[in-house]
Model the fold of this input.
Amino acid sequence: MTFKQFALHNVLRNLSSYLAFFMASTVSVMVFFIFSVASFHPDIYVADTSTDLADLLTIILTFQYGCSLIFILYSFGTFLHRRWREFGLLRLLGITDLQLIKLMFLENILIGFISIISGILLGLLFSKYFFFVISMIFQFPVEFHLSAFPIWFTFISFISLFMSVSILSPFFIRSKNIYFLLTKSRKQSRQSKTSLIQAVSGITIILLMYGWLVYQIQNHDKLKRVASTEWLMYSGYNFYMDIAILIVITYLLFSQISMLGMTLLKRNSRFYFYKTNLLWISSLAHQAKQNVRNLFMSTILFTVSLAFTANLFTSYLYTAEQLLKEYLVPISYLSYPEDKHLQENINYIDTYLDQNEYEYEKVQTPILALNNLRTPWEKTPIAVLSNSNFNQLARFLGRAPISLEGKDSLELIWEGWGVNTPSMFHQKEMEVGGKKLNIIGTDDTPYFKFVAQIFYVLSDELYREVKSSYPTYTLVQYQIPDWTRLGDFSKQISKRFNNASAQLMTAADNFQGELVRNKTFFFIGSFISILFFIAAISFLYFRLFANIQEEREKYRNLTNIGLKRKEIKRIITRQLSIFFFTPFIVASFHTYLILILLNKKWIELAPFDKILQVLTIFGVIQILYFIWIRSKYIRMIFRYVDLGKS
Done:
């Protein structure tokens, strides 16, 4: 047998270990190749609308390559750990360091080469569908175009990756002595224990952290007005803190509560000694440390995949609702004091809506400008309006009216310019027309999405007294239920009305662009989510088959003392069910929590039924994967058991 044949037989003998790595590597190469073909496609740069897509494809190409590198490094580390004893025997038989490097290099390059070829072939098969979907999204033809560059680019990128890892991996073996390599795989892991104090502390921390997250969701508006949390709530950093809290919770769930659960099950004699419960509980408890690490990593990867997909999916479905949250109303027309065509322009909009049978409501609000509203970069724009006009606007927007008397005033602060908090714009003392206002409260609920940064609502009596001292602007706003069909009309009136004496703001003008953008992010983001999902299930696969030899020996001995095949299947099914579905269930709950926290200002944009659709799709994939792994795992166990009996 030649040295190359020996390396080939090593791969074939460890085929079960290499299979998951081969499949995951093939998918990584396939996705990378598809994005490479798209990134270097000449039609991608033709249309103006494709500029963002070209940049996005380039970013994703780099990101996906980095993820592939991390995944391959982890996979090789797992293989090295499983094969300590094999390498120890080879070194005991006299294999040189150079031969060991050559052996591992040949094995890894062989798997890598086959993965690259398979990935490119699958990429060629699915590239046509990829371009078909891109054509549908951007509504311009993108024909399948293949040049030699993406093939060579993919091949060189991944063969370099495999070669680098193949060259580096033997150095981890050379640093171990023969005794370590021979005994490492046979050492039994100590059973993890947790004290009652640790468990209670862990549970308390988990409950407090969950409680804080729920409190944030329920009291978002209150926290924005608390001095110690105001900047945090407005800056967005609180969301990153929430993610860190969920990561800590995930680790504590597996490191403390799971171990406490095992301890309690073992102390319940009636349950512990009932039928085969002793076997699967003891097995999980025996490998608790390793399970905690793998379950934690799998849960994090599942959470990233599910949350990313669900967020992009809901953003795409609720594009119109998100845009209307930003604009408040579909059409807003601001008339400056010198505008001579206010009524003519309003009649033009009304006529079009009436002729095309649109249902609509409108409100006209006069506003006094305390400074120049046209140059917000020079000075914070401030405006005032009367109590009666404010109440008319509030009813128009579905808000509660107010009642002001004398010099009482309500301060309205629009938070839309940057991440500034209301306190940065809050005026402790304010005078209008030489009269000092009595500010009875501050409201950051949006009533206007442009015009001014700060508004003061004055009593009708005070408004009439100061009206003549300031220029009057007029804001006309339209509520149109079926506004998404107004794209062409919005562009038309934007060109016609936006001038030196007026300003128009329409949601429909940007709707199609936002819809295409969200479609693109959802479509391409789904590929990234699939990569994380594959990585998660690969973690489970590697952990499961890391101790397959030990498990086969255990079940062979159990059959020798009378354990039936039906009971072995039941034990394996229970173990695998806990191992596969616990991280997915935790990740699903955290996914919903993340989307609520991300949209806590507008929770309606994180609907449970839409998120459930994403979780169901991934759940079905997880169930099918579980069925396949369970069947394969049981076959491997019984094949070894039967071999021992023959």
Remarks:
- The chain has three domains: 1-187, 190-326+509-646, 327-508.
- The longest helix spans residues 97-138.
- The first strand starts at residue 331 and ends at 335.
- Confidence is low (pLDDT under 50) at residues 47-51, 417-421.
